[in-house]
Amino acid sequence: MTWKGVNVNETKVRIIKAKHNNTSTEQQEVRKKRVVVYCRVSTNSDEQLESLDEQIKYFERMAKRNPDWRLVKIYSDEGKTGTSMKYRHNFRQMLEDCDNGLVDIIVTKSISRFARNALDCIKTIRKLKEKKIGVLFEKENIFTLDSTSEFVLTLLSAVAEEESNNISNNVRWGIKSRLSRGIFSFRDMLGYYRDKDKRVHIIEEEAEIVREAFDLFICGYSPREIADRFMAAGYLSKQGGNKWYPGSMRHLFENEKYIGACAGQKTYSNSFLDRRRIVNQNEQNIYIEDDTHEPIVEKIDYYAANYILERNEIGETRTLPFTGVIFCPKGNQKFRRKPAYYRDGVPQSLEWVCCIHDKRCEGCKITQFKENGLKEVCVETLNEWLADKESVISQLNRELKQLMRYKASGEIVPIRYGMFEIDRGAVERRIKAKRLEHLIDTLKSIRQVEAFDDSVMRVVLTGITVLGKSKIRIELCNTYKKEIIILT
pLDDT tens for residues 69-109? Predict the structure, then answer.
């Protein structure tokens, strides 16, 4: 037989026959599909955890009934939302095992257990299909390696996402309804505990730590400096540890529960999919109730601390002795410290230099000052001032009494995103009075100063103004000023 001039009978087609493996028990085991199970519950309630146990037992029995399956592992996430993969650690571990070629089939109860985000669900399934890994949704009876599965899966994933959105809206409505009726959550915190009837009581030992933190912050210490002082003093946190952090200090100052008030919806979630919390700066209602329990801190001190926070008066810790206190007459620029005179890669001295001068900008001819020289003249000036310490303290006490006689300005300003309204004049007087009291206590405890002590200087040193290449003016407590020549 010929076709297009070619004799078909003479054409030889080679056929490479498929190899059939022996049917030994071990080889049959190798051919079994490696199956993993994924289970999830969205809360840690007893009922949900019981449901998780039932899911695991059900799929274990299911895997045993299927002779072509070999159950490799069961992954489960407890109390995790299905709208995001970010916090579902075991789910992500399962996907990592899939990437490493350890899985053939994933079995799960339903689409909503796998993911409530339609985009994440479809994206993950397509990625798994590229690796020939199928997902079996037992409730919907869908296997993703089937040709008709993706269309149905897309529809059902969108339904699961919308269901999650409805649940989120219902929960949000329930929270707002609870807050509007004055039902607030109250977690354990430093200074308080709740009894079995959920009544709030003060722990006086812890309350003293809270009051000290507020006092130090109002007196000018930064959150980091307060944290360092507490660790050095051996104070224990609510969790029983000795670690204190600047962030936790800021949260303490912002916590309205320390003045006997409760506030709700201080943060909110903008999307039910990412669950990211956003600080509520009056974009949504904030619910506040005063006098819900006994306060630890006076309201005026709480207002003062938050007034300072909002105006960024207190920056991070002043780790260096003259940070932020040396000013150049050229544009009121501050000085910064830099090492000088290197030997074998090691700086032999430290100097303070004007930021403009250091950048070699025109118009500033102020040179640098040696740190040791600045310390010496500060100690000398302080001792001169303390020569008549009683007179100094008397003067400061008169200023304190005069300060307390001033009337409030009457200017009402909001703090903490409008949660509270304060009399600005009253708060500013409180801050000044606290700092004067702290200064007087510090001066009473010191005599002649022999060496530079940063803990003392940070209280009394108001500023150093550079007047020329070798001339500076040192100011102590906004009252005592001295011009002095210093070697550069």
Answer: 999 999 988 766 656 677 788 999 999 999 999 999 999 98
- pTM check: above 0.85: no
CA distance linking residue 130 with residue 120, whole number of Å: 16
Identify the CA nearest to 479 among candidates 439, 446, 448: 439
pLDDT digits (tens, 9 = 90+) for 442-460: 888 887 888 888 778 877 8
Q: Which residues contact 34 (CB under 8 A, 6 or more apart)?
A: 70, 72, 102, 103, 104, 105
In angstroms, rounded to a whole number, what is the distance separating the alpha carbons of residues 149 and 257?
A: 54
Helix or strand (DSSP H, E) at 347: strand 346-354
Angle between the N-to-C axes of helices 371-386 and 389-405, in degrees from 0 to 180, rounded to the nearest 10: 80
Q: d(Cα 102, Cα 34) in Å, to the nearest integer? A: 7
Structural domains in the chain, CATH included, are: 27-165 (3.40.50.1390), 192-310 (3.90.1750.20), 326-485 (no CATH)
Nearest to 326 by CA among 384, 370, 379: 370
